[in-house]
Amino acid sequence: MSRFSLNGRTALVTGGARGCGLAFAEGLAEAGADVAIFDVIDPVPAFFEISNTYSVKTAYYNVDVSSITSLQKGFTSFKRDFGGKLDICVPCAGINRNLAFLDTGFEEHQKLVGVNVMGVYHTAQLAAKLMIENGTKKGSIVLVASIASYMAIRSQMSSAYCGTKGAVRAMCPAIAAELNQYGIRVNSISPGYVRTEMTAPFPHLLESWKDEIMNRRVAEPEDIRGGCVFLASDASLYMTGQDLCVDGGVTKW
């Protein structure tokens, strides 16, 4: 079990103010890592309980991952506050829109790409540069993809979102191949249907999705966090360039 420990390591999670990002931050902290989060919204109260609950250092930075200037400022502040340490990065920030393919405008599509693709890519890039600079021997980047990279989301009009998440899963092996020389592993995690603030506006979908899932229930954010801890820790040392699909069996049924 010691291979799952993250004691002495420092993690950064984007989109960590709520939902799956918050669950990932909680899981990494529970395993012993100091955790910082980037988000454009203020964290829910549960984030501020992490430090006392798990006796780790935490910090929140208001960062828009779709802006390279904002990202760079965020990393500068993070580097200062955490002494240049970074071992784990989880680019989780993402947005979705329930828009028909024929009604998806160019600007709205650009917003999705800016956060879900460019934001993920350049968060990982800046994180990798800091890991290389500080010489970490435990570098792990966990990109957050989705079952939307495997399949159309039934009953939801999300062609642009599916495309962005497909891009995340596709970039993972190529980034992993380049960063292998620095001892940095790169994997992705693909959550299935999860009950979060992003899906809450669609209660009819949450109910209908139950019939599509092999284990007959929609996931809670905490159902996904174990996979992230696994990919961040030494328990997955022989994994890089892979996608871990945590979906209740929906893509296999």
UniProtKB/TrEMBL annotation:
The keyword Metal-binding does not apply. Keywords: NADP, Oxidoreductase. One of its GO terms (biological process) is abscisic acid biosynthetic process. Pfam families: adh_short_C2. This is 3-oxoacyl-reductase. InterPro entries: NAD(P)-bd_dom_sf (IPR036291), Sc_DH/Rdtase_CS (IPR020904), SDR_fam (IPR002347). One of its GO terms (molecular function) is oxidoreductase activity, acting on NAD(P)H, oxygen as acceptor. PANTHER family: BENZIL REDUCTASE (PTHR43008), CHAIN DEHYDROGENASE, PUTATIVE (AFU_ORTHOLOGUE AFUA_4G08710)-RELATED (PTHR43008:SF4). Belongs to the short-chain dehydrogenases/reductases (SDR) family.
